[in-house]
User: What shape does this take?
Amino acid sequence: MTLINENFLKLSESYLFTEIARKVNAYKEENPKADIISLGIGDVTQPLAPAVIEALHKAVNEMATAASFRGYGPERGYDFLRDAIVENDFRAHGIDIVADEVFVGDGAKSDTGNFQELLGKDVVIALTDPVYPVYMDANRMAGRTALVKLPCTAENDFVPELPGEHVDVVYLCYPNNPTGTTLTRGQLAQWVDYALEQDAIILYDAAYEAYIQRRDVPHSIYEIPGARECAVEFRSYSKTAGFTGIRCGYTVVPKDLKLPLGALWSRRQATKFNGASYLSQRAAEAVYTAEGRAQVRATVAYYMENARLMRERLTSMGFKVYGGIDAPYLWMQTPAGMTSWECFDWMLRSAHVVCTPGVGFGCCGEGYVRLTAFGTRENTERALRQMANQL
Ligand code: PLP
Assistant: This one.
C-alpha cells in the first residue's frame, strides 16, 4: 500500500530558487567580501503606497473594538473590494464583468495552482515552454503528466503557436513570466478563437498587467470578443501594488463559460479557503483610490525605468535581450553559447550578479537567463556597472 501521493516524487527534487540560494550561499562563504546583487528572484523592493498603509492602519484600528471587529469574511471577498475591482479594472475599460464573477483570494499563486482541481484527471493541458513553474507542478501533483508544451523561442518571437492537436485547457501568462514578452490584441484573439472552436478553456494569468505600456497589448483577456465564453482570468496585487507580503489577488470566472466553473470554484473555495484577510482586502481597496492609483503607478514607473536602463545598457554591452518593455522581466540570451547555468555561474563569479537560469522554467529556456527590474535603482545600476566591468 502506498501511503503518500507518489505524484510528488515525480516532481523535480529541488525548487529552482532553492538551488540558486544554495549556489549563492556557497559562493558567499568562499568570498565573504563579494558585493553580490540579486537580479534573480521576482520579489519587489519598494514599500507599500502611503494610501495602502493608511488603509491598513484604519483597518487594524477597526479590529480593536467589538463594534467594528471583523472575523470570517464573505467567502468570495468583501463587496467593497469586488465592486471596486469591477468598476476600476473592468467597467472603466468598457469590459463587462459583474461582481458575482469575481472571487477574491490570497494571490495568483494559490489560484493558478488550485484551479486545476476543477478539471478532470485526463484533460489535455497545454503550457508554454518556458513557463511559470506553478502551473506545471500543480498539474503534476494531481497526476497529470502528459502536458502539451508550446515552445516560446526567439524564432517565434516568444509567441506560442496554436496547438496542432486538440487541447482542453491552455495556461497563458501575459505579460509573461519569465520572458517579459507580451501578446498583441490580435495574437490573443487567435487563442480565444482557437478555444471557442475547440471548446477549450484558457486560464489567463494577468499578474503583470500593471506593467503594460503599449496600447496594442491587452490588459485583460476580456478585451477580446468571445473571451467571456472560454477564459478565466487571474489577477494579483503582488506586483501591481507590492502586496507580495500582504497577499491579495482575485480570479474572474465568467458566467458565460460553457462549463459551470464558477459554481465549482465557489464550492472549492468555500470548502478549502477562508478568505483573504479583512486587512489585505481593505489594503487592496485603497489601490483604487485616486491617491492609491497615482502612488502605485509611480512605483510601477520606477521599476520600468530600471527595466529600460537594463535593456539599454545590456544591449550596449552586446547582450541580446528580450522583454522588459511591458513587463518587469528581461530575458537575456547567454553569451558565447553558454548554458543557462554556466551563464549563472559566470555572472555570479565575475560580476557578482545573481540571475535566474532560464532552463529552470523549461527546456526552451536553455540558453537564456531571466533578470528582474524589481531591484532598487541603486542596486540595478551597480549590477549593470559590475557587469560592464567584466566585459
Ligand atoms: N503568476 C505569475 C506569472 C507570477 O510570476 C507570480 C509571482 O511571481 C504569481 C502568479 C504569484 O503571484 P501572487 O504573489 O499573487 O501569489
